[in-house]
Each structure stands twice: as structure tokens, then as C-alpha cells.
Amino acid sequence: MEFTRRQWLGAAGAALMPQFSRASVPATRVAVAKCTDYGASLTPALTRMFDQLGGLERLVKGKTVVMKVNLTGAPTYRLGYAPLEASHYTHPAVIGATAHLMGQAGARRIRVVESPWSTADPIEEYILQANWEPRDILRAAPEVAFVNTNWGGPKKEYARFDTPKGGHIYRAIYLNKVYEECDVMVSVAKMKDHATAGITLSLKNCFGCTPCTIYGEGAGKDEPTLTPTGGRSMFHMGHKQPSPPAPPENDTSTPRDGGYRVPRIVADITASRPIHLAIVEAVQTMSGGEGPWNGPGLKLVSPGLLVAGLNPVATDAVCMRLMNYDPMAKRGTPPFETCDNTLELAEQLGTGSRDPNLVEVIGPAVEQVKFDFAALREEKKKLAPRRRGRRNA
């Protein structure tokens, strides 16, 4: 089904309500909403949440906005017969509704960005393979465009972002210049478990900001390649260094282990390129991993949740509680059985606080609406060894 700008406007109109006072809204305020479908109830729910955060206008009016969405994995990967947006891609209705509301709030320009798997092709071509209609999003507001951030364009142009406190792994991150040319950075993520980092929410979503022409498997030794190939295995294994001019690791004697490296690199990225608005959607999603490639025990689930906040660490902390996880958890405890806590590492760089006592939740109480990802995680752990045993028999 195609949506016109008039239709987006009509969906939002019934939800408009007086905004909260815009004076000094704390960055630790996080809005939660129940939303059981991607239809008529979605835009009103988002509108209420943004109003509860102080209103979008004060954040985006007259500004250039970058919306980093999650299109992890090639469009050919599907969980059963489900569309990708039902399992692991940010749903296009959430992207379109958010872009529409930002346009309505006066955003001058909106860029929907991602570094899609192993390609420099236009994102429009990529999402067509997922059976999406790009025009649904492009028509959601007056000035919307897609940008593939997996490369630096034909002139190999990148922007340097220095990491506060020198970073955990990298003292600076190099990104597509679109991240430098924006005023407002928005992470629009899917609520999911993650095989390497435990969970993937608004912080981990920004792992995909990085260009594979510099940080990818096929990145050049002396300079960035013109086009990206492969994934970001150097982030996971540390077997090579980024392409110059991006700086090498601070310390190559640290563990060559994804559970150590990936959370720290995510913390570096999100501290160097700060997020101004974090949106996490779980109207529908999957449990047990970040994509269909994560093996047996994966499930399509319908938590019926939307979460938004002005600080990504606080927002992800609330998301973890909604998933029945503890945002204060240490390595060795769920969901961080084999990795370090990304929220803790981001907190160490000054990005925000994960302490539930320092986060104000607006909307339904967490205990009333949480969805038990933790229990499903335990089911998956029990299933995987049994299936491995049958294969080895």
C-alpha cells in the first residue's frame, strides 16, 4: 500500500495535542507507549511520546535531521516467511511516520541513512528487494532523501569524529560526511537480542553508521576503497586496522574477541557522533538474535511497544527493563553472558546514565507492559545444544 503526504498528515491530525512545557525537559526522560499494530494507532502514539519529551519542534525546526535506521543483513535473509520489517528491519511505517512528524515540526531536511550490506547502491534499490516502496517514505515530508553511508561517495569524502576521553578502542571514527552535515542525529532502532553484544537497541543500531570502505573486510590498507565489500569483521576480530586516514586501534594487545570489542566500539561511535533522539520500536520483532542467521530458537514476537528518549543510554536502559533484563548487568549474566555491557561502556564515556533510579519513565509502568525476552532467551539456549547433538550424531 502506498502512502501520500496527505495520508500521513491525516493519520497524525487526530493525535495533535497541547505540547508539554519546552523549558528544561531532562535528557533522562524516556517515553513508553503500547502500540499493537503499524496502522492508524502508530502516528498518534509517536506524537504523544514526542510531546512527552518536550515536542519535536524545539529539536528539529529549521534543522537538517539524519535518521539512522536498521536494515541489518541482506534483503534475502528472512525469518520463515515473515517480511523483514516484522522480524529485524526497522518497520517502514515507523520510519515514514517519524519523518512525517519531523516535517510537520519544521525540519528543513531529513536524511534516512544506513550502510546496507556490502553495497554502495542507492538505498532505494536495496529496500525494493525487501518489497518496500521507497516513495512511501520519500513522500512522508517535504524534503526526504535516502543516503547510503557505507562509502564516502565517488570522491571518498569522510568526516572525522573524535572520541571523548580517547575512546575505548578508537580515538576517532571516520564516517560519511552526511553525519557531519546534520544538526540532529536520530537512531530509529528495532528492539532485539544480539548474538555478540547481548542486545541491540538505539546504541548498537549505530554500529551500522560506519563505512565498510574503511572498516570492512575489503577495506584498503593504505586508503579507503571506492566501494564496500563484506562486513565489519575487523570490529569483531581485530585482525586488521582501518584504512587511513582513520586512526588505528589505541592498543592492539587488547582481546581479539567480539564480546570485548563490539560493545566498546559501539560506545566509541555513539560518543563521537552523539544521538539527540533515540527511538526503539517493538510493535513486532524477533527474539533470540538480531537476524535470521542466528540459528535455532528464533521467534517472531509482538511486544506491542514503542520507546523514545533524548538520551540513548537512558532509552536503552528502559528498553532492557521492558525486555526483562537488568541494565546494570555485568558480563557473565543475561543478556551479557559472553560480552561486556554496552550501556556501561557508553556511560564511561559520558554518553548518559543507565541507572533506573536516574531515568524518568513517562507512560505505562514498565512492570505492566514488559515482554519477557529473557525467558525466550533461556528457551533458545536449551534448544541449541540439543539440535547440535542431533547434527553430530
Description:
The structure is a single chain. The protein is of the alpha/beta class and 393 residues long. It has one domain (5-392). It has helices at 5-13, 42-52, 57-60, 84-87, 92-104, 123-128, 134-138, 212-215, 233-237, 258-272, 312-322, 342-348, 366-369, 373-392, and strands spanning 29-34, 64-69, 109-114, 144-148, 158-162, 172-176, 184-190, 192-194, 198-200, 277-282, 285-287, 299-301, 305-309, 360-362. Strands 4-3-2-7-10-13-1-14 form an 8-stranded mixed sheet, sandwiched between helices. It has a two-stranded antiparallel sheet with strand order 5-6. A two-stranded antiparallel sheet has the order 8-9. The chain is globular, with a radius of gyration of 20 Å. The chain starts with a helix and ends with a helix.
Number of spatially distinct domains: 1
Terminal residue distance: 48 Å
Biggest sheet record: 8 strands, mixed
Shape assignment = globular
Summing up helix and strand content along with how strands pair, one would put the structural category as: alpha/beta
- Beta-strand portion reads 15-25%
Q: Report the total helices.
A: 14
- Strand order, main sheet: write it out: 4-3-2-7-10-13-1-14
String of helices and strands? HEHHEHHEHHEEEEEEHHHEEEEHHEHH
Helix percentage range: 25-40%
Mean pLDDT: 92
Our Rg estimate from Cα atoms comes to: 20 Å
Specify the oligomeric state.
single chain
Uncertain stretches of 5 or more adjacent residues: 9-26, 386-393
Number of distinct beta strands = 14
